[in-house]
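Recap from last week: sequence in, structure out.
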Amino acid sequence: LSIISGPNRDSKLFYKIEEQVPLIVTALTKESKGKSLKTRPGVFQLLVELVTVIPGCLQKHVASFLPGIEVALGEKNTTSSLKIDALVFLRVLLQHHSPEAFHPHLKAIIT
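Predicted structure tokens:
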């Protein structure tokens, strides 16, 4: 997948993916807080791809993913690879969104 920017932002594909973002967020938020250790890494990997392809697409949804990240990083039975996937997602999220999206959530991100 390549980053959709510049002239590609006008493509039909961009708009089709972008209008699916709220549905994707709803489904993946639920899965990111779930108990399945097989599903959660895939959730974070899919989110990394989504944010990489459409930078800023989760601007309005940052708060939705913080509990899932906290669960992945805080549970004792979480694998180290899941923790790495969660941290990679957080890094990509911070990299591809404006700082203002994170201001209300800084306390949760830092602790």
